[in-house]
Amino acid sequence: MVRTNRREWMRGAAGLAMVGVAPKAIAAGSSTLPDKAEPLPLSAIRLRPSIYATAVETNRRYLYRLSADRLLHNFRVYAGLEAKAPIYGGWESDTIAGHTLGHYMSALVLTWQQTGDTEMRRRADYIVGELAEAQAKRGTGYVGALGRKRADGKVVDGEEIFPEIMAGKIKSGGFDLNGSWSPLYTVHKLFAGLLDIHGGWGNAQALDVAVRLGGYFARVFAALDDAQMQTVLGCEYGGLNESFAELYQRTGDRQWLTLAERIYDRKVLDPLVAGEDKLANFHANTQVPKLIGLARLHEITGKPEPAKGAAFFWETVTGHHSYVIGGNADREYFSAPDTIARHVTDQTCEHCNTYNMMKLTRHLYGWKPDGRLFDYYERAHLNHVMAAQHPENGGFTYMTPLMSGAARSFSTPQDDAFWCCVGSGMEAHAKHGESIFWQGGETLFVNLYIPSEARWEKRGALVTLDTAYPMDGASTVTFAHLARPGRFPVALRVPGWANGNAVVEVNGQAIAPVMERGYAVVDRRWKAGDTLVIRLPLDLRTEAAPGDDTVVAVLRGPMVMAADLGPAATPWDAPDPAMVGANPVAAFTPMQGGAIRYAVGDAFRPKGLGFVPFFAQYERRSAVYFKRFTEAGWKAEEVSYLAEQAKARDIAARSVDVMYLGEMQPERDHALTSDISYPVSYLGKQGRDARSGGYFEFTMAVRPGPLILQATYWGEERARDFDILVDNVKIATQHLENDKPGKFFTVEYALPEPLMKGKKSVRIRVVPHDRSTAGPIFGMRLFTAKKDPVA
């Protein structure tokens, strides 16, 4: 059994020296891998039966359920046209409306490419025609569905914010820009959909709409000086730089390249280009698309700085900010580097982040093929992306929680969620074949072991890949047809976790391949009917969380294993399981029945567990990370460890509502309103304050009986005083001062029962005293008071 840490895994294939070979081996020719590579077109790949093919089909049914006319509702209404169908709910009924249509357009193209379903292409062309009509009706070049909430609360066409911005009237709170929710992020999604349709089959109208839309925003940005531009870019803008770079690539019009390079958030990107990790407390998915844009700019211009920023970001995030499943961020934000163990919560791993990190990985890989890039890609693809889609109803997760006992939440079959990860989810599960096979020079790369067949035009080949991986370690590549036989290299990725222990066979005979950049390279004369087999070991091992060797996860090959803690419908109120002993993985016993499942006894406390693949825990509760103890250490820690766990579980079990202040979605869900109030971040925790003359206020659910309001504070604040009110009744005046150095602490406020009577919710209001500050408060929780024991 092998134990590795995160850095060892990231070194991966780069450190491989040899491949295990059977005694009777025939030598293969030496080979040097090409400097660049590109994927075989998605349209050249067809998936064979597997969990991936099932995911594509489930997603295709989901796309069929969606109505283009409902997604187009605001586009038509705001352009002065009659709507053809009612608007969807969820985010599509908020000021971010329109972002889903962009994702849907891209997903239609990808599904057509992956499956050949002509209905996908018909729908995409229909949407482009509708957008062109709405754009022509407006007459400005603009087309969009985003809304704008005015000061009086009325929601109107979001286009009205852009003349204000051009006039220098810019107000942004990070996600809000002049009353519209991340409007440029939404514009980027529309650009991406249009450009994907144009690239998919040459729809000229899609490019025309994109060019006219680009012209509109060129005029908006031309009105801004550099300082104003940076203020605007302080609000999430997705990968808008990538869109304009791609528009230049399609048209040759240099104005788009100039604009793409100007869409550059200096606060975030300058440190990355300089090789500095200052990501802590930044909203994660706001940043990743910016780096994808830099990667695209490097590919177009050849300038080295964008490549430096993109590559450093990838190394930093995958090596120091990522969880074992390949995802990143806690409650959507990066924490300090190598602090993952302190952030194993129920709000880990937003799907959009991983979707975008995988896109960035593909860019970096194309510059110089290296197997360790696809070690990460495979990790994220199998353990996060495949965990984020419900295989039956096609719903998507927002977060994929890694906290012990947490259950996944999926978007509803009624399609009324439409959060960002629904959009990235419908794209991610349309294209599982896109990165299996790559080509560079004369070399064919096999990067993912997924059952499939591919048309390789360079050799007039039909290549099949048969495997039960990752359940089984063997994969067989067959040249079912080869119109142009001859000598060329085939590079099979040998993951870093295999530690060089792989067996490679050609036509049933073991060979000694050349090892290079994480690949077993077989360079020989190939003909139709030849087979190439790779057998990878799938041993169990532990992997430490970045920065903390006492917190570990269990893996089998590329697959993260999880303790099965029971059905999602059954609450989990037991202590977090702990791993005890010098070599606990040795205690894993395979169970009979075909599925990958292990029974483990005394190596886990307080009781034995069953382990299964994490990704497949769709309707189950899991434990992924485990605090690791020696036997002596467990005896010393058991009482305090279990007591601490019991207290946390008790509070969680009694919780009525939790408010994560300073975080975008929770604040929207709780209808937060504020003035002179700002989100803050400190030591990995998000919070919110209010300055003198301001306030913040939000709704929390209540239930009958005595309730306690708990607030979390940092113990080293300068002196300040503020009031906490419930439905405009003051329940406490809180004084903070530097009296609990170096730690966060909680304060509990008992709520008067008469104040709750007959109510389902209340408004919590936090108001600073004159010339003082309220908070920061790093979250508030309402829970029921403990009942006094019966005498």
Describe this entry's structure for a reader.
This protein has 791 residues and is α+β, with helices and mostly antiparallel strands. Among the domains are: 121 residues, Immunoglobulin-like (Sandwich), CATH 2.60.40; 87 residues, no CATH class; 125 residues, Galactose-binding domain-like (Jelly Rolls), CATH 2.60.120.260. It is built from 21 helices and 39 strands. The protein is globular and about 85 Å long. The N terminus is likely disordered.
What is the beta-strand fraction?
25-35%
Query: What CATH first level of the domain at 660-784 would be assigned?
Result: Mainly Beta
Residue runs with pLDDT of under 50 for 5 or more positions: 1-27
Q: Which class of secondary structure composition applies to the elements? A: alpha+beta
Calculate Rg over CA atoms.
27 Å
What is the typical, i.e. mean, pLDDT? 91
CATH architecture of the domain at 660-784: Sandwich
**Helix percentage:** 25-40%
DSSP summary, beta strand count: 39
Q: Report the end-to-end length measured between terminal Cα atoms.
A: 54 Å
Q: Can you tell me the overall shape?
A: globular
The CATH superfamily of the domain at 660-784 turns out to be: Galactose-binding domain-like
Please describe the biggest sheet, giving its number of strands, its sense, and whether it closes into a barrel: 11 strands, mixed
Annotated CATH topology of the domain at 660-784:
Jelly Rolls
- Counted by DSSP, the helix tally is 21
